[in-house]
Amino acid sequence: MITLVIADDQGMVRAGFRSLLSAEPDLSVVGEAADGEEAVAVVSRLVPDVTLMDIRMPRLDGLAATRRLLETGVATKVLVLTTFDLDEYVFEALRAGASGFLLKDAPAEELAAGIRVVAAGDALLAPGVTRRVIDAFVARPGAGGAHSAPDRRLATLTARELEVLGLLARGLSNLDIAARLFVSEGTTKTHVSNVLAKLGLRDRVQAVIFAYENGVVVPGAN
């Protein structure tokens, strides 16, 4: 059973998510929070597998709440909730440690599937979403890594691992990367694991951010 906490300042939104998710036999909503401070308290106490975190909440926003939870070592996966027209804070939420994000108007099956993906330890960041997040990030003054020295950890990667990192940053799945490089999916998984380990990154979301901030790929590249 995957346990969940829903953090959103709108009671109707929380009730809607609870209703949708209660129909799933493997999902259980164990708590709710109406603001960021309450979210930190509830999640710290219940330690759910996944926390659905709204960004714009009173007292403490979802970005700060996410950062506080993960900095203090609470073992939960955070899924950011957004209404999208790109929430300006989504990229920062991913940098703070969120495992991905979902649209508030996502169909029930997509919501449930996304929760399962994150609970299993994977990042929820579809190619189209990756592009929109990155485009929003690099549009900001001073964003990106083009004008600063690349992180020294890049030098620890082999040529193939650097190639894999670039494909990850474009939002490709392991299966897509395998097809692009003409290797097995198992080999791709090994490369991805090696990249994350060498760079000291937690998941694919952090890898995407790292790659763009360090100029491994540039916006608009195919």
For this entry, give a set of tags.
single chain; 222 residues; alpha/beta; Rossmann fold; Arc Repressor Mutant, subunit A; 5-stranded parallel beta sheet; 10 helices; 5 strands
Textual characterization of the structure:
There is one protein chain. This protein is of the alpha/beta class and 222 residues long. It folds into two domains: 2-124, Rossmann fold (3-Layer(aba) Sandwich); 152-213, Orthogonal Bundle (Arc Repressor Mutant, subunit A). Helix content is 49%, strand content 13%. It has a five-stranded parallel β-sheet with strand order 2-1-3-4-5, with helices on both faces. Helix 1 (11-22) links the parallel strand 1 and strand 2 (27-33). The radius of gyration is 18 Å and the shape is globular.
- Please state the second-level CATH architecture of the largest domain: 3-Layer(aba) Sandwich
Mass-distribution shape: globular
Radius of gyration from CA coordinates:
18 Å
Query: Total number of β-strand segments?
Result: 5
Instruction: Provide a count of the helices.
Output: 10
Q: How many domains, in number, for the residues?
A: 2
Helix content: 40-55%
Strand order of the largest sheet: 2-1-3-4-5
Organism: Microlunatus ginsengisoli
Domain Response regulatory: 3-119
Modified residues (4-aspartylphosphate): 54
Protein name: Response regulator transcription factor
